[in-house]
Amino acid sequence: MKVLLAAGGTGGHLFPAQALASALVRRGHTVILATDARAKTLLADFPAEEAHFLAAATLKGCDPVSFLKMGLTNAAGLFGSMRIIRAKRPAIAVGFGGYPTLPPLTAARLMRVPAIVHEANAVIGRANRSLARHAHVATSFPEVKGLTGALSVTHVGIPVRDQVREAASHYVPASDRFRLLVFGGSQGARAMSDLLPPAVERLSPAERARLDIVQQCRPEDMDRTRAAYEALGMSPELAPFFSDLPQRIASAHLVVARSGASTVAELSIIGRPSLLVPLPGAIDQDQAANASALEALGGAKRLDQADLTPERLAEELASAMNEPERLAKAADDARRLAKPDAAERLADLCERLAAPQGDTR
């Protein structure tokens, strides 16, 4: 069958879609992707027969002009989505969140294509909340706040890429070195560049001497972050993006990161302890809920950015470096959230709910 996948153009939305696409292709199905222009740099390994970059917009103001611009943009995306569905006749459509999923999933409903909405977070997002009333919902967490009125709800976990599952078999070898991995989602996080170097400065000289740091930095923060570490006599590995991030997670003794759904899933499947700093100011507070869910199992510690100082972070790092038994237990506890077969579960759901022979009109 043909399956239409719709996802916002960031890693947090695209990586679960890629995992499902791989599972579907292994079963002999064909995948068509609908996303937005942001995704163009992230699709090198996406196993779709076609990728369509559709117009989509979220509201950026409360004035009439902003409403008009949003309406016109999404209308263009809706008509483009309807053309794709009419030409490709998918048996089912699956959305992975973000406002770019609204036009394709709305078109699917209008054209009577069965639809699944996958909610990656522990709180349902606004786009998914509006779509869930007319769709089947697949969830990453056993409980999702704000989810009501769906045609059905199935807990599948969050699909992860094959390289994540492969990294889960990697074990950190014993070493006097302490490998610290720092990242902030697919776009990086300025707060990490602000907090980590002064926190590391507050460690003892012996602790600093043990540290091997791999850190994601936004390009505009790279020079100042490198200079701050070099002033401490340190030479960390800094980059805007790591294509082999799952392997780096597996090799780390401790991870400091944002708590997007994909990050939490990868930490749980690979089984690594973490300090999670939820993105502040999010309307739905989804990252805070994700971090709290993993923290409740003992697999992470949630550190809210508003309360996080270099001194506090230094205390957490020193504690982790000097308590290997606690880190080992946190790694085991993180695995309690894992659903390594989530992509297969979601593929099963697609096959079960798909329209016969793709005959949807």
Please give a structural write-up.
The protein has 361 residues and is α/β, with parallel strands linked by helices. It has two domains: 172 residues, Rossmann fold, CATH 3.40.50.2000; 173 residues, Glycogen Phosphorylase B (Rossmann fold), CATH 3.40.50. It has a seven-stranded parallel β-sheet with strand order 3-2-1-4-5-6-7, with helices on both faces. A six-stranded parallel β-sheet has the order 10-9-8-11-12-13, sandwiched between helices. Helix 3 links the parallel strand 4 and strand 5. The chain is globular. The two termini are 15 Å apart.
The largest pleated sheet is described as: 7 strands, parallel
What's the tally of helices?
14
CATH architecture of the largest domain: 3-Layer(aba) Sandwich
N-C termini distance: 15 Å
Q: List the helices and strands in order.
A: EHEEHEHEHEEHEHHEHEHEHEHEHHH
CATH topology of the largest domain: Rossmann fold
Radius of gyration: 21 Å
Search tags:
42% helix; 6-stranded parallel beta sheet; alpha/beta; Rossmann fold; 14 helices; 7-stranded parallel beta sheet; 2 domains; 361 residues
Task: Compose a concise summary of this entry.
The chain is of the alpha/beta class and 361 residues long.
How is the topology of this model organized?
Elements: E1 2-6, H1 11-26, E2 30-35, E3 50-53, H2 64-88, E4 92-95, H3 102-110, E5 115-119, H4 126-132, E6 136-139, E7 152-155, H5 162-167, E8 178-183, H6 190-201, H7 205-210, E9 211-216, H8 222-230, E10 237-239, H9 245-251, E11 254-257, H10 261-270, E12 274-276, H11 286-296, E13 300-302, H12 310-321, H13 324-334, H14 342-353
Parallel strand pairs: 1-2, 1-4, 2-3, 4-5, 5-6, 6-7, 8-9, 8-11, 9-10, 11-12, 12-13
